[in-house]
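Z., the sequence and structure:
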Amino acid sequence: MGQKDTILERVALGSIGISLAVLGLKVTAWQMTGSVALYSDAMESTVNVAASIAAHFAIKIGSRPPDRRHPYGHTKIEYFSAVFVGVLIVLAALSIAREAVPAFFAPKPLEAASTGLAINALAGAINGIWCWLILKVGRAQASPALVADGKHLLSDVISSMGVLLGVVLAVMTGWAVLDPLLAAVVAINVLVSGWHLIQSSLGALMDEAVDDRTLLSINTAIAAEDEGALQAHDIKTRRAGRATFIEFHLVVPADMSVGEAHAICDRLEVSIHKIIKGAAVSIHVEPPEKAKQHGAVLVAA
C-alpha cells in the first residue's frame, strides 16, 4: 500500500470516530430539547456515520492493485460508495419530513434549550473543522469517496448553523412553529444534496470523460512533445475513482522505426503525467494513411 492510500485510509477511519462522537452530541441535544429541528440535525449525522464507514471500505478496496479479474484496478468502488451515501441522504430527508409535518400542526415548546443548543453548537464546530480537513485531503488525493463524505459533511455543517440560529430565534420569540419549519428546510437541503451526489456519481460510473479544462491540458501536454509525429486523434478519457485513463491514436511517418515511435510515446506519457499524475496512458501508433482530415486534435507543423 502506497503512502497516498495510507493517508486516505487514516482520514477515512478518523471520520468514523468523529462522526460517532458528533452523532452522540446531537442526539443528546435533541433528547434534552425535544426539538424537531435538532432531530433533523441528528438524523443527518446518522448518515455521516454510514458515509464514513462506506468511504473507509471503499478506499480500502479501491487501493488494491490490479489483478487478473480487475486489470484496470478497483478504484471505481469509490463511486458505488458515493451513490450509497446519496441514497442514505435521501432516506434521511424523508425521515426528517415525516417528523416535521405532524410537528408543524401541533408545535411544542422547547425544553432545556440553552444547554441543548450549546451541545449542538459544539458538535457543529467539531464537524466544521473535520469537514475542512476531509475536503482538503480528498481533493489533494483525488478521492471521490472522501470528497463525497466531505461534501455531505459540509451540507451538515451549513444546515447545523441554520438550525442553531433558527432554534435560538424560536426560543427568543416563543414561536414554536419555527422549529418544524426549520426541520422542513433541512429536509429539502439534504434531499437536494443527496440528489446531486447520486447524479454526479452515476455519471462517473457511466465512464464520463474528464472535464473540458483537463482535456485542454492533455492536448497541451501532447502538443509539447509531438516532435516527429504527424497527427494525434481520437483522444478518449474516463475517470475511475482516483485513476484517469487516457487513450489516443498517434500517426507517424511510414519510414519511422518502432524504436523511434516508441521514444515519442514515452515522451508523450511523461508530458501527460506532469499534468495528471498516475494517469494510465494508452497510445496506438498508426501509419500516415490512417490520418484523419477532420477531428484531429494535433497536427504536426
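The first strand starts at residue 231 and ends at 240. The two ends are 44 Å apart (CA to CA).

Let me know what you think.
H.
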